[in-house]
Amino acid sequence: MPASFAAMDAEPWLRLIALVDMDCFFAQVEQRDDPSLRGQPVAVTNGLTGTCIITSSYEARAYGIKTGMRLKEALQLCPDLIRRPTRPRRYAAISTRIMRALSDITPVMEVYSVDEAFLDLTGCQRLLGTPEQIGHRIKQRVFEVSGLRCSVGLSAGKGTAKFAAKLDKPDGLAVIPPWQIRARMVDVPVTELSGIKAGIGGFLNARSAYTCGDVARLPPSVLGDRFGNPGRRLWCICRGEDPEPVCTETAAAKSLGHGKVMPPNTRDPRIVSIYLLHMTEKVAARLRKHQLEARHYALGLLSDKGWIGGNFRLEAATNDVRPLRRLARRILREHWRGEGVRQVQVTALDPCPAGVANDLFTRTDARRTQLNAAMDAINARYGDFTVAPGLLMGRSEMPDVIAPAWRPAGHRQTIDQDAEQRVRRQLPLRGSI
Known about the structure:
With 433 residues, the protein is of the alpha+beta class. Helices cover 39% and strands 19% of the residues. The chain has 2 domains: 15-156 and 164-173, Alpha-Beta Plaits (2-Layer Sandwich); 256-407, Dna Ligase, domain 1 (2-Layer Sandwich), CATH 3.30.1490. The chain has helices spanning 3-8, 25-33, 58-61, 71-77, 88-105, 125-128, 131-146, 158-165, 181-185, 198-205, 212-217, 220-227, 229-238, 269-289, 321-335, 366-382, 417-424, and strands spanning 17-22, 42-45, 53-56, 82-85, 109-113, 116-120, 150-155, 173-175, 256-266, 292-303, 306-318, 341-348, 352-353.
């Protein structure tokens, strides 16, 4: 029976939300592109010099290998582990293809990350069928455009749809009807819900709330007063009443930054300086690309004792790298005392459209603007940092990690294509570090 006719016999849900979650996305892409990797334990790291596992195949996970584990430790668990350097541009291209296909099923879609999307299917039920039928349709469409498997969760809210998507991985399909949500969630540990980490989990545990049922019995003010709207939403999810809509609009940037993980305990002033100045160049170039500028910036170095650095206010909003270089050198001169560091970060805290934040008396350097435009045009055509300051000659070759806020277009799509192409020419042997 066609889905459209079968659906006429079923009462549509008042709200139907799906979460589409690609199974171990990066590793699955590597296995798809290289048939010799299929059925093999594969771990993806950030370039050839990355020592931290970004994701791994299910075959690798069977050995106890997890995201965030060091490669050396993973090889002790699985000596035959196959390491592959990440290919951000490839993953982004496949993700974009998947997201476009999902938008053909319903235009009410929220790209949650590079490998996840929420779909509001409430108005599609008469046309597409029952929740189970729609779930199978989604999985088939994703496979048609990508050759990859995904897991789909369907429920009456985003929180429970995301929870459902984890229930039958990999290649799963799980449906939690609205009339079953509260009973189904009552014994689920609250830490199983998305975004519930040690902080909020510890807060709830201190109040004898360990499961969703425990949280639902708390007064809503307990979470609302401590965590605001996210706390109130968590309380609603635990009661089976998640009100948050699927957001189709990408919010304006509240901040815009770049960071880079360094070799642990780096103390060489030259290396630390190169990493930090590299990030200032990336932030400035990205601001210019999207016609943005900022006046407030955060620059920092991460040591074992925490962040070294701070927030700084410039006299005028800018997207030129020279003021950021001066801030970077100030961090190194006034704040860093040679401690071992493992990460650098540069963030524009208040990006806004270029030309808006400054007043009539702010002077602009026309020659510098022209030089930046020429350099950006060359780099856009031939690859990032084709033209770069000489001080960055020793910069890291590691490609960018796809951030959780990645989107198929706009200021959130920031993939270092040039670095990705470089590392692919240097694939390592199996099991090497």
